[in-house]
Amino acid sequence: MSYVTSRAVRVTHAYDALFGALQLTSGLQHLHSHDLGLLFDAAYTALLYSHAPKYLRDMQQDLDELLTRAHAQPRHLLEMHGALVLMRDFDAARALRQRYPQVPFEAIPTITTLSRRCHPATPNVFAWEPSTQSLRCRPALYEAAACILVLAAPSCAMSQAALRLIEQDPVLHAVFKTHAAWLIPPRSTLDLEAMVHWNSAHPQAALVLMHHASDWPIASPFKTPTFCFRRANGMTRIVTAMPLPALGLALHREIVAAHLPSG
Predict the structure, then answer these.
(1) Cα distance between the two ends of the chain
(2) For residue 128, which of 20, 209, 236, 44 has the smallest C-alpha distance?
(3) Regarding the domain with residue range 121-257, which homologous superfamily does it belong to in the CATH classification?
(4) What is the rounded CA–CA span in Å between residue 131 and residue 21?
(5) How confident is the model at residue 121 (pLDDT cuts 50, 70, 90)?
(6) Is residue 62 within 8 Å of residue 45, measured between CB atoms?
(7) Sheet (strand 180-184) strand order
(8) Which top-level group of life is the source organism from (predicted)?
(9) 19 Cβ partners below 8 Å, 6+ apart?
(10) H-helix segments, the chain
């Protein structure tokens, strides 16, 4: 079990043990507003680590109670919006923005969504379409078949440094150009401006947004950069962020082990 996954388990187990009983709707009415805010924060933390829908439901009922009391703060609304973006409930995120126009929410672009996946085993991704200034949800046919999956975030300094390392190394550059797919794991922000800039500057490492992290065979979907090497025998090897010299050696080692040609 990876460090990130084990930490997520610890966080959610602690939340369930300490706060699960308090999230009963009948019990929320008896909590002080300050304690209700702490409960909302705890549910948000559990959601960020687990991506489990039940924590989004807990957040929503906590927020509803705070709104009923007129004690909700702008940060509660912003975090709720971020949670909806994380869980890809874009319609609900837009509705929240329309309901509270005074809150500086991140804008959600037009999204063209497929009615269904082309194959049940194929995950979906969101790709930026410059011509229409929109996100297009499409089957991740190329990404699902790639020998290397890279989890990166365009505003993440370590992701940027890893990309520079790859681009400056002739062998890594050639291998990643041919065999890698670059993905942004679900987060509480789309960070579209940074994504568009990244893709414009680095078209051979263009990023797409994951729909759901659980669709992908990566044990630690919250840490960037993460490199997943998928071998022909079905084995998967994970390389996570580390100092650049060591990262370069680790990537070279996995390329050799996976028998990925550079030419």
Answers:
(1) 35
(2) 209
(3) Glutaredoxin (3.40.30.10)
(4) 50
(5) low
(6) no
(7) 111-112, 134-139, 124-129, 207-210, 180-184, 148-151, 226-230, 236-240
(8) Bacteria
(9) 39, 42, 43
(10) 3-19, 25-28, 33-50, 53-68, 74-86, 90-99, 141-145, 157-168, 170-179, 192-201, 244-257
The angle, 0 to 180 degrees and rounded to 10, between the axes of the packed helices 157-168 and 244-257 is 60
Residue 90 and residue 97: Cα distance in Å, rounded?
A: 11
Beta pairing, strands 148-151 & 226-230: antiparallel
116 falls in which pLDDT band (50, 70, 90)?
Answer: low
Q: pLDDT of 221-260, one tens digit each?
A: 578 999 999 887 777 889 998 999 999 999 999 999 988 8
3-class DSSP state for residue 219?
coil
In DSSP notation, 100-121 reads: -TTS-PPPPPPEE--SS-SSTT
Measured from the Cβ of residue 84, the count of other Cβ atoms closer than 10 Å reads 24
